[in-house]
Amino acid sequence: MESTELSLRQIAQMASDNNGGAKGRELDRIAKSKGLTLSYTTVNKIIAGTYTSRPGIKTVEALATLAGVPMAEAYNAAGIEAPQASLAEQLPPDADTLTPDQRRVVIDLTRVFIKQNRLVHELRQEVVEHEDRSAPITRTGESPVSAKNHLKAVPNYREATEEELEHLAAFPGDPDIAHDEEPHGD
Q: CA dist 3 to 6, 8, 17, 73, Å?
């Protein structure tokens, strides 16, 4: 039997179904009684397919618990990586000695990876939602199909050409990434 990824909307509906069809304030009360955090307006919008933001970790965990699905599956549906150890704790001891320019590069590259992870998730979510014949849930309310034009297949980054790395490092005019500049040859 082939397994399919659940959407956040499906998980929210399962949470409702598992709790006698409770929605909104009633599901919020049930969550609170179990020590969970869930906004009734958020869950109503998710179930209705009109939620256009990225849910918080506590919301995702509440929905997973109420729906009886593994946390990892709920994180995936929400486009959120499962919490890990703090990146700052994993940096080498001398990371604090980086120059301001070096820090900017590390931070900008991190932002690029985060943005790309979100975009990949939105595209996957659209496929799942399309299969369900329901509207996609994206963080911006726009169809992630339009974002496909920004994707470029890149081989293993260790074997990538300089041009491919420049493409990853900056998208021209991208307001979501600080210090974004068009790649230029030096």
A: 9, 16, 20, 12
Contact 162, 87 (CB under 8 A): no
How far is the C-alpha of 144 from the C-alpha of 119, rounded, in Å?
Answer: 7
CA 64 – CA 75 distance, rounded (Å): 9
Percent pLDDT > 70 in the chain is 66
Provide the residue type at 156 as one letter. N
Burial-class residue 67 by CB neighbours within 10 Å (0-12, 13-18, 19+).
Answer: buried
Q: Can you read off the two tokens belonging to residue 85?
A: 């150890």
Place 93 in a pLDDT band, splitting at 50, 70 and 90: confident
Dihedrals phi, psi of 13, to nearest 5 degrees = -65, -40
Q: What is the pLDDT of residues 108-164, one digit of tens each?
A: 999 999 888 888 877 877 776 666 554 445 554 444 444 444 445 544 555 666 666
What pLDDT, on a 0 to 100 scale, did the predictor assign at position 82?
Answer: 81
- Which two three-digit tokens encode residue 76? 């995936």
Closest by CA position to 79, among listed 51, 102, 107, 104 = 51
φ, ψ of residue 182 to 5 degrees: the values are -65, 140
Q: What is the rounded CA–CA span in Å between residue 19 and residue 32? A: 13
End-to-end CA distance of the chain: 54
